[in-house]
Structure prediction request, 341 residues.
Amino acid sequence: MDGASDEELMLRIATGDEPAFRMLAGRYAPLALRLARRVMGSSADAEEIVQEALLRLWVNAPRWRPVASFRTWFYRVVLNLCLNRKRRAPFLPIEEASDPADPTPDAAAGMERREIDRALVAAIAELPERQRAAITLTYHEGLSNAETAAALGTSVSAVETLLVRAKRTLRQRLGPMLDVGSK
Amino acid sequence: MTMTLARFQHLLDVHGADLARWPQPLRTAAERLLATDRAATAALVQARALDALIARDEPADADATRVLRALAARPLPAQRRLFLWRQWPSELLTLDFAPAWPRLAALAGVAALGFIIGLVDLGPMTVGANGEDSVSIVAENDIGAVVFAPDPLPEAHP
Prediction:
């Protein structure tokens, strides 16, 4: 069962195969958690959402049809849960992104880099959820614009609009750092 | 295809700064613009820097142990089964194995309806500028009327 594809596992899960479900859950839980954390900005919310997404996967497996890749479909389930939920904490607390003080001679350069990273995390976290999701899916999950559209349940042109708006905002907020950040 | 700077900036945001990933016609136009426009080159440099910065913010691998442990600690809920009359083996419900008779019946029904319409003379529904009826006007342009028109050459008759 280790080498079974996602779709093969889903067909088994549809018959009530719990070990197949545990295997697929283990395969996708880290990925889903990473995505949900980025969209929600909160680890606690993300864990609840991923748990709910996996339970929905189990409950609805008999009705699932392989018309799209399982990965894209599951991204969509996770993102729908994220976007439907009320958000209280818009982004990760700055403390979670900080590192301990660096005593090495390159400490100044390291500190500058950390400042850039913090600014970047904050800028991405303050984007509207759908723009943040589009950025995360294309840059960090490696999805094409078409796959991102399928995951978000929208059109390719809508995804392109999300990316254009997100990058415009990021350019405005991070403009002075772009030359520094490329070093 | 001629590309403006504004269009180039838009496409940088849509497709990213790696021109190798752009559709070929757009890539060719972009390269032509870059060969002559310094502002376009500056935009490309900035886009590469932004892409590199965003990609650097790769989220750390998430530890899903807690989630998986919570799932394992509870019994799984009942699955949502299909209704009895649709309870085919799952393989039969993929596109290749779905029953075809509903679609064949619909196709036969449409063909029969078209045949009947072609046989029945419905008369002019509207009148054209020269007094000709709309069926004749449509018949010149409508492939369906070519197949089902009762009289393909109405102008031949007094």
In short: Residues 92-99 of chain A have pLDDT under 50 and may be disordered. The radius of gyration of chain A is 19 Å.
